[in-house]
């Protein structure tokens, strides 16, 4: 590899790293508690305890739960229902009106019910879109920096920069380290050289994991606009026969239990998990938008929406997701590390801490270069690190694979 090619790769590594490092640190730090979000959520949950019932105890009717929710907030509309398959809970979304909710989803709130008794366990009167508590704060920082769609797209771009920094770091690793044993950390040399060796070692060891997490993270950031585009384009076609009809009134809605049963019969290999009510901008004006997922560890990450006529209870269509949204769904467990129980979560945290160390050592190298004489530069592809130390004076930008 010629010196000019090395310089170009070095420039790619330096600038993609410098641009993205601060945001990657935020993502890595906020990602640590999110790995344990289920455990932390349970620890911070101030809801009343679940009823102690037999393992085979039947679950309460969804229609009964909805009736209690509407009695609790007369005059409000039910926006959604979520049936948890991990915990015995049913979550009912409520809002003052459809107009207010569709213009500002933060006006909604959530009621948590015991799935066996139908008793309200928590009344989340705070708007659902408002950031309250530790986990929502971490999630918003990790997902969009409190900047909505613009923040989501920006962090997606930073994820792509991260992947490019990793690739360029791998390209540079061989020429820069060919005179040293793999994993060598020269403790007897200058402090900056030790930082460099540590940066190189951590980076090359974590390359595959950082690449997977960086790429899946960028894919997840793009999921929101891609899903919105698919939803709009698909909905226009499916809803043409109902155009011009009024949104069903509450008294005209069919039984939600019957709608769930109809969906279960239509897609028997799936588990019915939630419904969005007609009138929501996140669904159909005329249907229950019922979401289902698979029953195995893999298919449990794959979702299929089903439209149910809200007046008759008949299934209108089961809408297959396009391949690129399927890919996004499958990528999520690889990013969050939440599909293998506690051992995998602990491993994910250790790898995340290692990535933070790569970023920090890269920052130390970058800012420390100001104190090094600027007269030594990269001259040939066959240089000796021990003699010229070009990688110390031209230290790679923080991030990713070692220089």
TrEMBL record:
The chain crosses the membrane at residues 145-174, 195-219, 346-367. Keywords: Membrane, Transmembrane, Transmembrane helix. Coiled coil: none annotated. InterPro entries: PepSY-ass_TM (IPR005625). This is PepSY domain-containing protein. It comes from Gluconacetobacter dulcium. The lineage of its organism: Bacteria, Pseudomonadati, Pseudomonadota, Alphaproteobacteria, Acetobacterales.
């Amino acid at each position: 590899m010629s010196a000019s090619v090395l310089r170009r790769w070095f420039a790619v590594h330096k600038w993609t790293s410098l641009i993205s490092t601060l945001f990657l640190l935020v993502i890595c730090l906020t990602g640590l508690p999110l790995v344990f979000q289920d455990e932390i959520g349970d620890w911070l949950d101030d809801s009343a305890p679940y009823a102690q019932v037999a393992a085979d105890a039947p679950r309460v009717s969804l229609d009964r739960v909805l009736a209690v929710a509407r009695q609790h907030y007369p005059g409000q509309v039910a926006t959604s229902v979520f049936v948890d398959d991990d915990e015995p809970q049913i979550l009912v979304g409520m809002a003052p009106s459809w107009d207010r909710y569709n213009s500002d989803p933060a006006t909604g709130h959530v009621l948590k019910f015991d799935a066996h008794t139908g008793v309200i366990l928590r009344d989340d009167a705070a708007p659902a879109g408002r950031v309250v508590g530790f986990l929502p704060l971490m999630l918003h920082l990790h997902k969009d920096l409190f900047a909505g769609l613009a923040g989501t797209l920006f962090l997606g771009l930073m994820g792509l920069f991260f992947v490019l920094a990793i690739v360029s770091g791998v390209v540079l690793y061989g020429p820069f380290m060919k005179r040293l044993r793999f994993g060598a950390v020269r403790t007897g040399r200058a402090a900056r050289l030790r930082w460099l060796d540590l940066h190189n070692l951590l980076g090359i060891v974590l390359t595959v994991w950082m690449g997977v997490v960086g790429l899946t993270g960028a894919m997840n950031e793009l999921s929101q606009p891609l899903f919105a585009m698919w939803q709009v384009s698909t909905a226009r076609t499916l809803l043409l026969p109902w155009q011009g009809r009024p949104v069903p009134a509450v008294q005209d809605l069919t039984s939600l239990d019957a709608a769930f049963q109809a969906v279960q019969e239509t897609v028997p290999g799936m588990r019915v998990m939630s419904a969005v009510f007609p009138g929501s901008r996140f669904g159909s004006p005329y249907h229950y938008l019922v979401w289902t997922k698979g029953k195995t560890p893999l298919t449990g990450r794959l979702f299929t929406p089903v439209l149910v006529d809200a007046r008759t209870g008949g299934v209108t269509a089961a809408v297959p997701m396009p391949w690129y949204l399927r890919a996004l769904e499958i990528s999520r467990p690889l990013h969050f590390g939440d599909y293998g129980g506690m051992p995998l979560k602990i491993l994910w945290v250790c790898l995340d801490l290692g990535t933070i160390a790569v970023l920090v050592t890269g920052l130390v190298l970058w800012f420390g270069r100001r104190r090094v004489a600027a007269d030594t530069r990269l001259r040939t592809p066959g240089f000796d690190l021990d003699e010229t130390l070009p990688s110390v004076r031209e230290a790679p930008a923080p991030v990713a694979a070692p220089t």
